[in-house]
Amino acid sequence: ILLDNIRSAYNVGSILRTADAAGVSHIHFAGTTPTPDHPKVIKTALGSEFYTPWTQHWNAKNLVEEYRETGYQIVSLEISISSESIFEIEPGSLDYPILFVLGNEVSGVDPEILKLSDKLIEIPMFGEKSSLNVSTAFGIAVFFVRHLTNVKDKSQ
After folding, report:
1. What is the C-alpha separation between 129 and 58, in angstroms, rounded?
2. How far is Cα 29 from Cα 108, in angstroms, rounded to an integer?
3. Global pTM?
4. pLDDT greater than 50 at residue 128
């Protein structure tokens, strides 16, 4: 997964725990996203920061371009006009390897990365608030994608 400019270290720690539970093979921390050595990340990761390899990058767009060139499907979690509900994704339309992108809690995924994405997915909202916390949304989406792909191999 790629975490691009996630603001909250607590969200990052929660994402680390969920990523470990989902069997994610690598986490990329981009921009201003706090890394696993940050005290607040450690507090919420509860040791999961030791189980998933990670790297830090300053330019997320360049990383996404590199992954596209090596055959990864780029899937961004973003509510937009062109997003597809995770509940309407056709089985088989997502295939590994996948680079799963999460963006800033306020501004979302960088528009330049959205342009490079093969698929934009969203979780439909039924209440008054039009979004979920990024770590909660990731938890729902990563397990749903795992279910759709029905693959035991680890993803990034």
Report:
1. 31
2. 15
3. 0.89
4. yes
